[in-house]
């Protein structure tokens, strides 16, 4: 088996490819031009390809050389970043976290001031994005991921439930005609969908045993935060979770639309990370803090449910939504 070239060979190659001449690369690296030439020659011999073409005094990359340069530049950049991070103070605590946008804005964001007050020496990065982290390619400690769980090859533990219920503003509710049945009341309302929500209107109606006309009035919003804002502004009825809507419920901007029907509860927010990340001290400290926040939040949810005369019902969301034909 051929022995891999040493790291110096790739470092010298990357410098020559970037600077265009062996002389300039040698000056940057603090070595002699002959040392650079020897490393490039050895690398070409080991790989069995030409990496450069000479054009006057300049060297230009071959097609194979361009491929190797892109890979080498990326690898060396990652190594330099890792070395800089390791060289900083060991007392500094850094945490990089990815969350879904609406969760980051509506649940986590308002609580972070308390976390930072308890941990003033932390460097914290919160990346609010719908796409999950590729832990093999991205520098991220963990995700708080929205979904049904079960991501293969990763540690996956439930953090928070969704508590799904139809909601609208008090003025919108008062403006609807008085009817005797839930079906009639729904038929007179404009239904707001959160496109990325796990629980969609089709599933909720199926599970409740209710029907609406196929040409019902509806609005589809890309984010839960946008859908909740529309409902609070009196535009229609949104099917959303108390997890995100709790502030509007507390201040009276939103109320349950059909309080006789149960609040559907299921795990929706998950801690996701490689198993090895659980041993990181910053991850442990953050999880202790967020667990405490979640305990307090559950008490708030129970108070909301009791104050509005609601009842909560646990569902196997993943299985039931498939059977019910939900778009979520």
Automatic annotation (TrEMBL):
The keyword Transcription regulation applies. Signal peptide: none annotated. One of its GO terms (molecular function) is sequence-specific DNA binding. GO terms for biological process: DNA-templated transcription. The keyword Transcription regulation applies. It holds the Pfam family LysR_substrate. Residues 13-62 form the HTH lysR-type domain. Keywords: DNA-binding, Transcription, Transcription regulation. Belongs to the LysR transcriptional regulatory family. PANTHER family: HTH-TYPE TRANSCRIPTIONAL ACTIVATOR TTDR-RELATED (PTHR30537:SF5), HTH-TYPE TRANSCRIPTIONAL REGULATOR (PTHR30537). This is HTH-type transcriptional regulator PerR. It comes from Pseudoprimorskyibacter insulae. The lineage of its organism: Bacteria, Pseudomonadati, Pseudomonadota, Alphaproteobacteria, Rhodobacterales.
């Amino acid at each position: 088996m051929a022995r891999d070239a040493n790291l110096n060979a790739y470092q010298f190659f990357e410098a020559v490819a970037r600077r265009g001449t062996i002389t300039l690369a040698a000056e940057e690296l603090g070595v002699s031009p002959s040392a650079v030439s020897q490393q490039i020659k050895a690398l070409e011999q080991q790989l069995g390809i030409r990496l450069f073409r000479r054009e006057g005094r300049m060297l230009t990359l071959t097609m194979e050389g361009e491929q190797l340069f892109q890979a080498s530049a990326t690898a060396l950049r990652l190594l330099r970043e890792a070395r800089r991070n390791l060289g900083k103070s060991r007392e500094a605590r850094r945490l990089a976290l990815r969350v879904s946008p609406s969760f980051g804005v509506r649940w986590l964001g308002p609580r972070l001031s308390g976390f930072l007050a308890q941990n003033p020496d932390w460097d914290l990065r919160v990346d609010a994005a719908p796409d999950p982290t590729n832990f093999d390619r991205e520098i991220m400690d963990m995700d708080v991921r929205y979904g049904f769980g079960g991501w293969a090859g990763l540690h996956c533990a439930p953090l928070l439930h969704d508590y799904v219920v139809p909601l609208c503003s008090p003025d919108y509710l008062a403006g609807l005609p008085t009817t005797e049945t839930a079906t009639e009341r729904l038929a007179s309302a404009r239904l707001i969908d959160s496109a990325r929500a796990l629980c969609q209107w089709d599933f909720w109606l199926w599970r409740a045993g209710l029907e609406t006309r196929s040409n019902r009035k509806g609005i589809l919003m890309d984010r839960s935060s946008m859908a909740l804002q529309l409902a609070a502004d009196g535009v229609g009825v949104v099917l959303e979770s108390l997890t995100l809507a709790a502030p509007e419920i507390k201040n009276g901007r939103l109320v349950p639309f059909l309080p006789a029907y149960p609040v559907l509860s299921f795990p929706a927010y998950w801690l996701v990370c490689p198993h090895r990340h659980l041993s990181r001290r910053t991850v442990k400290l953050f999880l202790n803090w967020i667990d405490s926040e979640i305990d307090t939040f559950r008490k708030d949810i129970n108070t909301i449910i009791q104050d509005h005369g609601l009842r909560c019902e646990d569902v196997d969301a993943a299985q039931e939504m498939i059977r019910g034909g939900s778009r979520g």
